[in-house]
Design brief:
The complex is a heterodimer of chains A (251) and B (266). By secondary structure, chain A is mostly helical. Chain A has one domain. Chain A is 76% helix and 0% strand. Chain A is built from 11 helices and no strands. Chain A has helices at 2-13, 17-38, 53-60, 67-83, 87-93, 97-133, 142-169, 172-192, 194-200, 204-211, 223-247. The two termini of chain A are 25 Å apart. By secondary structure, chain B is α+β, with helices and mostly antiparallel strands. Chain B has 10 helices and 11 strands. In chain B, the strands form 4 sheets. Chain B has a 4-stranded antiparallel beta sheet with strand order 9-10-8-11, with helices on one face. In chain B, strands 3-4-5 form a 3-stranded parallel beta sheet. In chain B, helix 2 packs across helix 3 (60-68) and helix 3 (60-68) crosses helix 4 (84-96). The longest helix of chain B has 17 residues, at 114-130. The chains are: A mainly alpha (251), B alpha+beta (266). The interface between A and B is medium-sized, with 26 and 31 residues.
């Protein structure tokens, strides 16, 4: 198993996909941090002023805005095997395919943990500098560290969901487009329509929102429930993906 | 199916009695080239290192097999920029990583230039004869297969058509054991040969003689003072044998079913 996990890391770090996604995530998170801080305290934006606990919670949870890139990291990790037909040599090397998918899940969870730490550090640095200029850099107290930690955890779970989703769909472009449409179109619609917003708290986005900061949000679960639910989605995608990868013929 | 990538409708395939998926170290037992599959942005060397890691092999195996297939200089370049022949070599290198005793190659000569085909022929012979590995090749290029293989399995429309060595297949083919003679005086030669009851059939200036060696026919022609332009025993090529064996079977007219797979083992 260790062999297979290390093979996945070799695969990940011998192309430049990881670098692009990590740099993209850093740039995005800096952008969001600057925007959030710039509009903090502005009555029209509705964002509380720098130095308030709500602002700090939002700023520390800012990293979850790049969840889509972690989802894509997981999707590419799995679907590249099908896109470039390396599934054949991969499954020839490890004929028990369930082990390959599990190795991928573990390898990407660990790699995503590393990337998430980088993103969190960049996020904190950007917030600390900008908010510091505007008067009050958030301290790394227990509350803020907790929010940072849970947003990092959310990023890792999204990478795991990506691997599972990739195993389900196998088509790289389809899985990425599907993931984007879901995150940026379907969930926001469900969230905003009163008739369906009750269901939102049970969806991955609702779970994510519960796990991290809430901002004029609808009815949500408790943070720990959100975390468990999000993890559950990741595991369901992984188990389904494993099951299908084992059953399907490789052509 | 042999390698456990697809589920067969019925039956099993085993290597030394073990199904592929149950082999404890599949790469060390069986090396396979099915299609040249690699990530285009990854170098050939890194591609091989991935599978070294996955199979628990030392990483220097990647460099060793690159030398073996003649890719040592190209190993650090992106595999996406490889020529078709280099891709085939990289596939072969992947199969050799685990130093397996059995190699399974699907259409290894596909897309190779004449030099590459000659290299492949020599390389496969080297692997089978000098290193004692079993090499199983599937191919549509019958004349190519004929030059390389020791044993042939002809599969058509999902059924076994014939199996044996090239010599056995030739012996079983139509026209085996006959000699072809061409002569501008075919009539006189036929007469001379028929004198002792030898079976001769004539078609223009060509005679097909049954039951005599080329030497016997040559000396008979010399004695009769007949000019001879060609004298050879008739042997059928694999392609000819294939068409003889599968001729008249309706299922072979279906384009999708027409999949001859002569295979070779050591």
């Amino acid at each position: 198993m260790t062999h297979l996990i290390r093979a996945e890391w070799t695969k990940l770090f011998t192309t430049r996909v990881w670098l692009g996604l990590l740099l993209g995530a850093c740039v995005m998170v800096i952008g969001f941090a600057v925007l959030l801080t710039a509009f903090a305290g502005n009555p029209e934006s509705g964002i509380p002023a720098v130095g308030t606990p709500v602002y700090e919670e939002l700023a520390m949870a800012n990293a979850v805005n790049v969840n889509v890139l972690f989802l894509i990291l997981g999707i590419i990790g799995m679907t590249q095997e099908y896109r470039h037909r390396t599934a054949t040599p991969t499954f020839l090397t490890a004929p028990r395919r369930g082990r390959v998918v599990i190795a991928k899940l573990v390898a990407y969870a660990l790699a995503a943990t590393l990337f998430a730490l980088v993103v969190l550090a960049v996020n904190y640095a950007a917030v600390a500098v900008h908010a510091g200029v505007r008067g009050a850099a958030p301290a790394l107290d227990a509350d803020n560290l907790g929010t940072l930690g849970s947003s990092g955890l959310a990023l890792v779970i999204y990478a795991v969901i990506g691997v599972g989703l990739g195993a389900l769909l196998r088509n790289q472009v389809g899985a990425i487009v599907g993931g984007l449409v879901y995150l940026f179109v379907i969930e926001p619609i469900i969230r905003s329509i009163p008739a369906t917003s009750g269901a939102y708290k049970w969806m991955p986005g609702g779970a994510l929102e519960a796990l991290t900061a809430t901002f004029q949000g609808p009815d949500l679960l408790d943070a720990w429930q959100g975390g468990v639910l999000l993890l559950g989605y990741g595991l369901v995608a992984a188990v389904l993906g494993t099951f299908l990868a084992v059953r399907r013929d490789i052509v | 199916m042999v390698l456990g990538l697809m589920k067969p409708d019925a039956g099993t395939a085993t290597f030394n009695g073990t199904p592929y998926a149950s082999l404890p170290q599949p790469l060390r037992t069986v090396g396979a080239v099915l299609e040249t599959a690699f990530h285009p942005a990854r170098s050939g060397r890194n591609h091989l290192r991935v599978y070294c890691r996955a199979a628990g092999l030392p990483l220097q195996r990647a460099d060793e097999v690159l030398v073996q297939v003649g890719l040592a200089d190209a190993g650090r370049r992106r595999a996406g920029g490889y020529s078709l022949g280099m891709r085939q070599r990289l596939g072969l290198a992947t199969a050799l990583l685990g130093d397996p005793s059995v190699l399974v190659l699907d259409e290894p000569a596909n897309g190779l230039d004449p030099e590459g085909i000659q290299w492949l022929r020599g390389f496969l012979r080297h692997l089978a004869h000098d290193q004692g590995r079993t090499v199983l090749v599937s191919s549509h290029l019958l004349s190519e297969v004929e030059q390389t293989v020791d044993r042939v399995v002809i599969v058509g429309a999902g059924h076994l058509v014939r199996e044996g060595s090239m010599a056995q297949l030739r012996a079983g083919a139509d026209g085996a054991g006959t000699v072809l003679v061409r002569s501008p005086q075919a009539d006189r030669l036929a007469e001379a040969l028929r004198a002792d009851g030898t079976g001769v059939t004539r078609d223009g200036d060509a005679l097909t003689v049954t039951g005599r060696t080329t030497a016997e026919i040559g000396s008979r022609a010399f004695a009769a003072g007949v000019e001879v332009h060609e004298l050879r025993s008739r042997t059928s090529g694999l392609e000819e044998i294939y068409f003889q064996l599968t001729a008249g079977r309706e299922q072979f007219s279906a384009p999708s079913a027409d999949v001859p797979s002569p295979e070779a083992t050591r």
